[in-house]
Batch of 2 targets.
Target 1
Amino acid sequence: MQRIHVHELSEHRGERVRVAGWLQQQRRLSRLTFLLVRDRTGVAQVVVQRPELIAEAAKLHPETVVAVEATVVESDQAPNGVELHEPTIQVLSPAGAPSPIDLRLAGLKESLPTQLDHAAVSLRHPCRQATFTLTAASIAGFRAALDGLGFVEIQTPKIVGSSTEGGANVFGLDYFGRRAYLAQSPQFYKQTMVGVFERVYETGPVFRAEPHDTPRHLAEYVSLDAELGFVEDHFTVMAVAREAVAGMVAVVRDRAENAVEQLELRLPEVPTRIPVLSFSDAQASIEAATGENVVGEPDLAPAHERWLGEWARREHGSDFVFVVGYPMVKRPFYTHPDPARPGFSNSFDLLFRGLELMTGGQRLHRYDDYVAALDARGESTAAYEPYLAAFRHGLPPHGGFAIGLERWIARLVGATNIRETTLFPRDRTRLAP
Amino acid sequence: MQRIHVHELSEHRGERVRVAGWLQQQRRLSRLTFLLVRDRTGVAQVVVQRPELIAEAAKLHPETVVAVEATVVESDQAPNGVELHEPTIQVLSPAGAPSPIDLRLAGLKESLPTQLDHAAVSLRHPCRQATFTLTAASIAGFRAALDGLGFVEIQTPKIVGSSTEGGANVFGLDYFGRRAYLAQSPQFYKQTMVGVFERVYETGPVFRAEPHDTPRHLAEYVSLDAELGFVEDHFTVMAVAREAVAGMVAVVRDRAENAVEQLELRLPEVPTRIPVLSFSDAQASIEAATGENVVGEPDLAPAHERWLGEWARREHGSDFVFVVGYPMVKRPFYTHPDPARPGFSNSFDLLFRGLELMTGGQRLHRYDDYVAALDARGESTAAYEPYLAAFRHGLPPHGGFAIGLERWIARLVGATNIRETTLFPRDRTRLAP
């Protein structure tokens, strides 16, 4: 008999059907047992009355995979208004041990480390499933928005000959007897590819040997990267960035309705024009409002980002706010300076509900400017030479941005730890599963 | 003035317009110079008559990025039937050196190593652009087909605690003072995720420390992976694999029409039922036809795959053929044996025009079977324990497959070296750009 899914059961009242899934729970009453069988579409209630079958079922551990053939019967008390009667039960795959995670409750009660240790089981909880359904929809929305704007998807190497973002947080590896590194970003590659396709994006892993154990950082995460040529300045880039985020929200709304409902989320509206605040004005506002001495600091602290998030909601009814014109000193060397304001840059961050979601800006596009920028920071150009070569041969004025996928989801679902939005997180201490 | 693209020029006859792109070539005649300016949509011919402007332009290296404002004039001899007259030319970004690659010809005449050394420029050639347009369309088609079949996209870690496919060809790295590896495949993760979503796919990089320098192998490539639960056997998997490939071809046909034309490709038809041959029958046929002693060998040689490709085309008019039931000894330890034929497996390869494009099969799904399979190969289960845990808690009968994206494109465009279908290839000797 052909398997049907649990969400289809109500269309088969009175019929004999076959469902298959995980034996999530057994509820034993005096004369009968309810089995709850979960598949990817929902949970079915199976009523077992035959004493031999009740005894057989009692031996099965939770998460045993079973196929059930039974009759669909209307029931007011069952999920979806139907339950399964007079079942035969076939074990498709045994569970060899009690479940380390209790999947019966509305939420998971185990600590996060326990959940992560037993990810193979904890991810089966509907709330965890819902989170990663949002992830899949978000990445699809990012791609759809950029495809619609004439961008071409690219795949660039993750094993590289020199670090892209500088700094110490780079993983080294032995590459056929030579030293190589894991890419901290596809930065130079996406810039190079602007010379080929003008507009490119990549969705893939990036690696940071982040030595600190924080709720915001991972050693490996998924970066949604875009880069485009023939820009006026960073505002051209921001217009595209807005479309990318709007596309992510649109596909979440469209494809992940059940997940949004499961997690009781309020999806953000992405304003046609996201509010924009200059870095300097942001500092002045924060200083005026809080009395803190922030004007002149080179960056915004997390508390200041939260303040700006509240400001955007209060003043503009927006979950998003762009901050533009960060000081050069805190931006990477490939950042384009603001021609009108020495020391400041054509860069931006996009804050989502008071958290940095995206960072971007216009880049330098002339070879000589790269050499000067590296010199000014006391860095050797030699290590970067294979990448800088692209700039010798005509790269148009360009810019781009990157979104941390897990961070986006964390803010969307209100997770306090980014590990909750990563299937199998990697950090200083966690390398498995 | 708003920039328009070259392919829009013919809609603007008689108007003053602005285009921007790369100065690909200058053709000097006695009284005038033709400039060829390339953007991502085509090449425009600009007619320069003013002597000062001819002299100015003569100083510019090829690949200088320029903006041209000019009048669109009909011309029988120009590309698209129009050319640009009375131009003003603005240099947006200089090229600081002569181009290392000649982009003027219909094809690239430089050797492959030279092309790869100067990828930033050689990838700008229309033929190279076309190849990677096919790549983008193929990966989009893979995702669209599987999305349509209820699969969920996942992202799994590339830094892992133990090798997935065994063998020596794994890259090691220092992970905060511990030993870690780069994932050779997302194999265990996608299997684990069958327990969560039943049907999952991933498109991402995989890493093989391939010590041999061949035209078929890379140290890093893009793997299109899928895995699904509640399968009958490998034939259930093959039906989905057929849909994935058909989706790839469909989106290439739909979105990459110009690239197909540029490269003068014949796209394959994917038969509703791809021909299927058992490994044993394949060997018998090859032996009967060629006189070679192949029956009893544990695997097919590349020449035998070519023979089978020709057979499929001759006998079935198909560019594709499935070979099923490979000997267990040549398949990974997680392969499900054929219950009816000891020593053989529920596995398959899909050959495309005589080359292995995809490998897949049914997997073991019971924990005890994994322990037995590892024992039989003399491997310790300890290293795999974090992954095997998933099998203690109920994984349904399942299977999956993987396609090497670059290999697919190589076969599609007829490239003899897989490096031609990788933007920035990585091999034993190549780590940059």
Target 2
Amino acid sequence: MTEFRKDMLTNTWIIMAPERARRPMDVSQGSYLMEELTQWDQYCPFCPGNELMTPPEVLAYRKPGTGSNQEGWTLRVVRNKYPALSPSAEPKTVKKEDLRERIEGFGYHEVVIETTSHSRDFAQMDIGEIEDVIWAWRDRLLSLRADKRVRYALVFKNYGHNAGASLGHPHSQIIATPMVPKKIKEEVDSMRTYYENTGECLLCAMLHDEKTDGKRIVEENESFTAYCPYASASAYEIMIVPNQHASEFIQINGVAVKDLSQMFWSVSRRLNAVVGGLVPYNLWIHNNPWWQDCDTSFFHWHIELVPRLTQLAGFEVGSGFFINHTLPEEAAQKLTSIEIA
Amino acid sequence: MTEFRKDMLTNTWIIMAPERARRPMDVSQGSYLMEELTQWDQYCPFCPGNELMTPPEVLAYRKPGTGSNQEGWTLRVVRNKYPALSPSAEPKTVKKEDLRERIEGFGYHEVVIETTSHSRDFAQMDIGEIEDVIWAWRDRLLSLRADKRVRYALVFKNYGHNAGASLGHPHSQIIATPMVPKKIKEEVDSMRTYYENTGECLLCAMLHDEKTDGKRIVEENESFTAYCPYASASAYEIMIVPNQHASEFIQINGVAVKDLSQMFWSVSRRLNAVVGGLVPYNLWIHNNPWWQDCDTSFFHWHIELVPRLTQLAGFEVGSGFFINHTLPEEAAQKLTSIEIA
């Protein structure tokens, strides 16, 4: 028997249909194993020695004595060479012609080249390398936040073809926009309504409920809890939530960076071990928007890590309902029963 | 220079970034050409002779004198063997436990086996065959509409791996739910607001605007107009809209079925010719929901045909913004400049 479960955070019904995992497929689904894992690729714009193939750095962590846009870095952030948005555009110009409304493509689109290695993702990196990725996200958000035209900046990551990555070298991206994205607005609305009705943060309450129920917890440390949400939209989806209420990711401190880094490493290893191969995934951070007047009391920042094991199909895209073929209780049970080293 | 364009129908901003089509890719993107095109596959549950591999028919168009669930059909509709929802579930039972809310998976999930041929899709079918597909959708919607527990039924189609198809044999699906899907609610809200403000149907106005501007029209016939919407969320997206206001697809008549059938055929051929190969796509019908009291004045039914040429990635799924790499003006220009026969 299948069931609808309500995602309180987005006010959306999800369909849980584990029976559908058994259906036959004759259309090739590809494989999650990437080709051979090379450490360096001469044609990759993100590999060391190819610094001039990217736009100039906006941030880099490098060995002392090495110059900008040369080798010697351990992490680089550059503007996307093919940006979706540009800071030289003018966000205020709304042009309206009958029913056709447009705004110049103002914004920022940056790429965080997470490591020098062409193929080591979170599951293969050292914890210290992952810490640097997290610090780089924070550094860039602090900088983008200073541009008062920006209302939101989404940190996200696409890993593997199924997750929409066009380049294999591990990287994350940041896109900053002059308006608050739809998905963020939905969460803001749910969290605000709940706060107004109860005086409590919705995600604090959901986290407490998950911890009490216990069936979907994957990992816990001092700073964070990782769990497969009760109303996960897709299989093996993992939510990483700070244990203490905080509205913005940039409030993260040194201990929490270490804890999050450790969690990214171990959760990625669990996923790869359970699903098999190098699991394609998306990851994003949901933050309080940068309104004129940021109320920090009701929004609780969090990270969603979404393995992309199936294609989004016509029903999902055409209706907005998601069908999940793996119960989150079962996903969590499998993820926690794995030995990782 | 990129730009934001507002989709008035869903009240969503889309990012138009044609420059991004030029970016390099080293992650394999697969190919749109399917393997060899076979007319019959002994293991395919949708091929003739394999009728007992599916649940029993709920509808079939067959040659006179042939019995149910045997050969002799030209089109069959069966319950999905691995249904996301079931009519034997009880839609009213909302079970709430703290923040965990669920409803039994009530609904219908049907498969329209569109043709006997394992590999002929709209672009290869006869017009008469496509007409039968459209009549079958109508017959099934009329039947599902009689179950007063159903609030919406989405007709949709997944063709090709990138579009989420698990079986290659051309088929469409219908999923009926006890609640109105999120995407439909968004359109209802936009159309209702516009109607309340202007006394006009929003989609009538948008269609008029597209016809007047003229740059994005792909095809027109007596009953329908096909165009690449001004704020298309993805490349080569095509909207098919009835020229006369009507709130529900089931109001379609014989002339319109012929016109729509012809349009599916020619639009599919145009897409395949321009993009190359057999283009993976999703298609869905958006209808007025089956509220208790259906106001038919403001909702205008329509079809969206969405080629799935790229993967939805972290930015799209995490923010709700879509990035389109092909301007709809350019898509329409290419689609209309093709000779089809």
